[in-house]
Amino acid sequence: MKAVKLQAPRRASVVEEPAPIAGPGEVVIRIDATGLCGSDLSTWLGHHPFRRPPVVLGHEAAGTVVAVAPDVTSIAPGTRVALCPLIACGRCASCRRGQENLCLDRRVPGVGWGGTYADFVTAPADRAFPVPDSVSMTAAALIEPAAVALRACRRAGLGQGTRLGVLGAGGIGTICALVADHLGAGPIVVTDISGDKLTRLAAAVPAIPVRLPGEDPVHA
Fold it and tell me: Strand ranges (DSSP E) for the chain?
């Protein structure tokens, strides 16, 4: 199969890799759409604290299950899925507290697990979540960052009439504003140094854009 491998900071190429085979409890997913996260950019630049080249990047992904291990009965080939890109150890103190996102021995794509800038990846069956046909693969690949934004909004206690400031109109900031609007929050003020990002955000959600450093977010 083909994969995009980062060989060194700022140097990537398309390479041939062995096609993955499902191990016990695993499925093989054909990647149909995958996103570009800020952590991928950080790795590309050589700044990421633990994801280091040579590595296949990518973790925001959706695709189609093409094979399953003999012991997998919860999901079948042909199922359209979104990928949860974290495998927790289940043993450390964080896992025992139910905080798998803080697992001390977690595996993520690119660290102990293949990245999604590839034709296929393997994943534990419980990390592949079926999505309906009404959801496009592009949208399904955004479920992972959308989950980040939804959790942030829930932890902030957003609801009807909550006034909100979002610092940054990047991917997560934009989705936070969309989720906040869906929850009835407002007014929503969003800051960024990029006029283009603010213009795109304003077309998607009724927010007050504040261009930094020229405009005053506190006044807004």
Answer: 2-8, 11-16, 26-34, 55-56, 61-68, 80-83, 120-124, 128-130, 164-167, 188-192, 208-211
Instruction: Read off the CATH number of the domain in which 32 is found.
Output: 3.90.180.10
Which residue in 130, 124, 56, 62 sits closest to 90, CA to CA?
A: 124
Closest CA to 15 of 1, 31, 35, 29: 1
Q: Assess whether pLDDT exceeds 90 at residue 110.
A: no
* 40: its two tokens: 């991928």
Kindly state whether residues 176 and 126 are assigned to the same domain. Answer: no
pLDDT at 112: 82
pLDDT tier for residue 141 given thresholds of 50, 70 and 90: very high
Q: What pLDDT score does 50 carry?
A: 84
* Distance in angstroms (rounded) separating the CA atoms of residues 102 and 142: 21
Query: pLDDT band at 220, cuts 50/70/90?
Result: confident
Peptide bond before residue 24 is cis, with ω within 30 degrees of 0: no
Number of domains in the chain: 2
Domain encompassing residue 194: 145-211
